[in-house]
Amino acid sequence: MPATVTFRVPKHRRHVPTIRRRLRKALVDWGLPENLSNTVVLLASELVTNAVLHCRISHAQVRVTLTLHGPDLTLEVSDPDRDRLPRLHHSGPDDEGGRGLALVSALADEWGCRQDPYTKCVWARFTLAGRRDVAPATP
User: Fold this and answer.
1) pTM of the entire predicted model
2) Domains and their CATH numbers in the chain
3) Exposure string for 55-79, b = 16+ CB within 10 A, e = fewer
């Protein structure tokens, strides 16, 4: 049975640290190693910040879901601006932003985005089996 936590926060930058704290607690509670937890929290921070900055729906909420199911850990960040899917692009050395999805692409085992009926979702997946930074589960 998968373990899942979901958080919703108002679309405002000041709530990004709240998401980081809540996700870190869930990852610690699940016994995942610090290296992997740090990566997941970093990518969540990038994706939530993207949602906060780019969602054009007033008074929106951003939903963050973390699911541990077998060897897979999946991070999902959703917002109601379903028609604006993110695109990976290459930032120049002088650009101040635009590297969030490049980080997601580099650090997650898989990532993508989808349009749901009322939201869009950007997700990142980590396969725990065979990772050097994940200890095997004990029965």
Assistant:
1) 0.86
2) 3-85+100-127 (3.30.565.10)
3) beeeebbbbbbbbbeeeebbbbbbb
